[in-house]
Amino acid sequence: MAQAAPIAMKEVLLLPSLGINQQYISFTNLTMESEKYICVREMGAATGGTNNVVIVDMATPMQPMRRPITADSALMNPDSKIIALKAAVPGQAADHLQVFNLDTKAKMGSHQMPDQVVFWKWISPTKIGIVSATSIYHWNVDGNSAPQKQFDRAANLNGSQVIKYMVSPDEKWCVLIGIAPGSPDRPQLVKGFMQLYSVEQKRSQALEAHAAAFASIKVGSNTQASTLISFAQKSMVNGQLVSKLHVIELGAPAAGQTPFTKKQAELFFPPEFADDFPVSMQISKKYGLVYVITKLGLLFVYDLETATAVYRSRISPDPIFLTSEAESVGGFYAINRRGQVLLATVNEQSMVPFVSQSLNNLDLALAMAKRGNLPGAEALVGQNFERLFALGNYKEAAVAAAESPMGALRTKATIDKLKGVQVQAGQTSPLLQYFGTLLTKGKLNPLESLELGRLVLSQNKKQLLENWMNEDKLECDEALGDLVKATGDSDLALKIYLKAQATQKVVTAFAERGQFEELVKYSGQVGHTPDYLYIMQSLLMSNPQAAAKLAVTIAQQPGPPVDVNTFTDLFLQRNMIREATSFLLEVLKPNLPEQAMLQTKVLEINLVTYPNVADAILANNMFTHYDRPRVAQLCEKAGLYMRALQHYTDLSDIKRVIINTHAIEPQALVEFFGTLSPDWALACLKEMLSVNVPQNLQLVVQIAKEYTEQIGSKGIIELLESFKSYEGLYFYLGSYLAFSEDPDVHFKYIEAATKTGQVKEVERVTRESNFYDPEKTKQFLMEAKLQDARPLINVCDRFDLIRDLALYLYNNNMLKYIEAYVQKVNPSKAPEIVGAL
C-alpha cells in the first residue's frame, strides 16, 4: 500500500459558494490576517450598486456577515471582531484610517495619514503596521495615539509592490517584502526584494527575497530562545537561476548560549515551473517546519533547524495569492484565484515514517518526532535509549526517555530501570534527571507524578510537591492523594483528590474533616450521589464524632437518601452509644409523633448504658411521643426511681417504686405527690411507712404537711395513728394546730407531745389552746403521770377542776406543786384546795 503523504490538504471553503463574486477574490480585495477571519471587499458594480465588506468567521464559515461599508481596504483583527478600514481622502493623496469594534459598534480609533498607504497589516492584536511610499509606521489602536514612524523604506524596494510586512515575536526585527517585474528578457520571473530592519540598531539590510518568516526556537540546551528568520529567493546570478532557502539567527546570542549555525538549502523547481516564484512563507511553531508556497501552487516543506528538505508537492492548480498561518493545527491556509480556501496540515501518522523511510533520515525523523510529539519513532527512540543506557550515559538516556515522542518511553519499565542505577555520592540520579527534564518541558503523567511524589516525600521535601502542584506540573490521581494522606497531610491530599476528580475520595475527605456542607455542595456540582453508607463505615473507624455529624447532615436533607434507623443501627452495631445519642437527639428535635419509636430507642439505649444521660434527656422534656410504660420500667431498673414514678400510671407500680426513698431526691418526691389523687397519696404514704418508719417518717410528715388540704387531715392522722407514730403525729399536728379548732386535733397533739416527751409543748398548748376537751385532757394527763404537773395544773385551773387536781397531786405526793399553785399560780383557789384535801 502506498505511503500516505506527510502533508494533508483539504478544501475547507469555496468562497463563490458564499455568493462572493470571483472578480473580488484577489490580493487587492481579500485579506486574511489569521486563521479566524477572511475579509472580502465587494464593489458596487457587482453588488447592485452597494459597496459591502463580507466577513467570514472560519468557526462558522457558512454564515458570512455582510456589512454595507465603503473602503479601499479592510483588515479583520487576528483575535477579535475588530475591523480596520482604509479609505482615500477626497481630493488629496492621503488615506483615512479607522478601527471599529463590530460587537459593541464603537469606534476605537481614527487617523488621517499625510500620504497614501500602499500596504498595511495587523502585526499584533493591538498594533497595525502601515507602509507608505517612503516609511513604515506602527499604530497602537488601544490608545488615542497617532501612528509612530519606525523607519524609512530601503532604496531596493523603490518601484516594487509591497506584499508583506511582519515583525518578530520580540518586536526587535521588522521585515518588508516587495516584488517587481522580471528583467525584459524574462519578465515572468518576478523579482523579490526584502528590507530587514533592526529596531535596536536602527539599521536596515537590503536583500533579495520573495518570502520570509520569523521564528523563535531554543538551540540545543540553551535556556533562552533565539530569534531566526527564514527567507526564500529565486533570481538570476551570473546567468544561472538560483533558488535558495536561508535560515539565519538575528542578533548575537546571550552570554553562555550556543549560537545557531546559519543554514541554506536549494529550492528545487521542476522545469515546467521555471518562472514560478515564492509568494508566501509560513513557519509552524508546533512542528518546527518551514512552508514555502509559490504562486503556481507548489509547496516546499523544510525542517527549520537543519534546513533539510522534507517534502514537495503541488497543492493547487490555480494561482495562490494569499496564505495565513493556521497556528492551532501547525499548518496554514492558502487561497487561490478560484476562491478555494485550502488547509494544509501535517499528517501526524505518516510524517515520521515518511522521513525515516522515504528520506532515510533517522536523525531528522527522531528530532521531528520529539519536537512535534509525533508517532512513528517508537522503535528509534527505544533503540537510542538502550544504546545510551548500555554505554553508561545515564543522564542522556534519562533525557532521551523524558523527551520521547508520544511519551513512548514514559513508562513504569523506564522508571524502574532508572531507579536501579547506582549513583555516586554528590551526583544527580538519572531518575531525578528524568523527572527534571519532564518538569521543564511540561506536565508529568499520573505514574510519573506518583513516583516523583514517593521520591520527594521520602526525602521530607513535601513543599516541592505542593509547588509543582500549584504550577500544574503533576497529573494528580487517587494513588498520589493516598500517598500524601498517609503522611498525615489531609489538606494537600484533598487538593490532589479534587484535581484528580477522585469523587469518592473527595467526599470521604470532606466527611473526615467535618465539612459536610462542602460535601453536599461538591456532590451536587459533580452530579454525584455519595455512597453515604460506605463513607459512614469508614468514618466510624477513624472519626466517630464526624460520622455523627455527617449522619445529621444527611438525615436533615429533604427526602434523606439514608433512613435514620439505618444510621442508628450503624452506630449501635459498633456499640457507639454516645455517637448514636448525639445523632438521634439532633434529628429528633422536631418531636413528631412519627418519631415515637426513635424517641423510645434513644432513651432505651441510654437507660441501659448511661442512665445519667437518659435522666438529662428526660429532664429537658424534649420528647412526648415515646413508649412511657417501657421507659418507666427501664428507669426503675436503672435506679432512676423519680423518673419511673413520673412515667408509671398504675398504683401498684408507683407503690413498688416509691419505697426507694433512699435514692429519690426528697423535694422531687414531695412535688410528685402533688400529682396523685388523695386515695393514691395516702396509699403511697402508708407503703412508705410500712417499709421503714424510721427512714421515711420525716418525709411522710413533710408530704402530709404540704398536701393536708388535698389529702385531708383525718386520713393523715389515722395513717400515723395506725403506725402508732406519735412522733409523726407530733410533727404533723404541730404545723396544723394553729389552723384547727377541732378539739380532737388539739387533744391528739397534746397526746403526741406527751408520748414523745415534749412536756414544754404540752404545758404551752394546755395553757394557750381553747379547743381541747378539758375532761378528756385532764384524764389523759393524770394517766400519763408526768413528772411535771404544770400541764395538768393548766387544764384544771382554766376549767375549774380544782378538786380533781388537789386529790391527784396529794395522792401522787406532788405537794410542792400544791404549794406553788396556791402561792403563785392562783392563790384565790386555796380554800378549794384545802377543802378538797
Q: Can you describe this structure?
A:
The protein is α+β, with helices and mostly antiparallel strands and 837 residues long. Helices cover 41% and strands 22% of the residues. The chain contains 34 helices and 28 strands. The strands form seven sheets. A four-stranded antiparallel sheet has the order 1-28-27-26, with no helix packed on it. It has a four-stranded antiparallel sheet with strand order 2-3-4-5, with no helix packed on it. Strands 6-7-8-9 form a four-stranded antiparallel sheet, with no helix packed on it. It is rod-shaped. The N and C termini lie far apart (163 Å).
- What does the main sheet amount to? 4 strands, antiparallel
How many individual helices? 34
Mean pLDDT across residues: 90
Straight-line distance between termini:
163 Å
Poorly predicted regions are: none
Strand arrangement in the largest pleated sheet:
1-28-27-26
**What is the percent of helical residues?**
40-55%
Query: Which secondary-structure class do the elements indicate?
Result: alpha+beta
Q: What is the C-alpha radius of gyration, as a whole number of Å?
A: 56 Å
Count the strands? 28
Assess the beta-strand content as a share of residues.
15-25%
Structural shape = rod-shaped
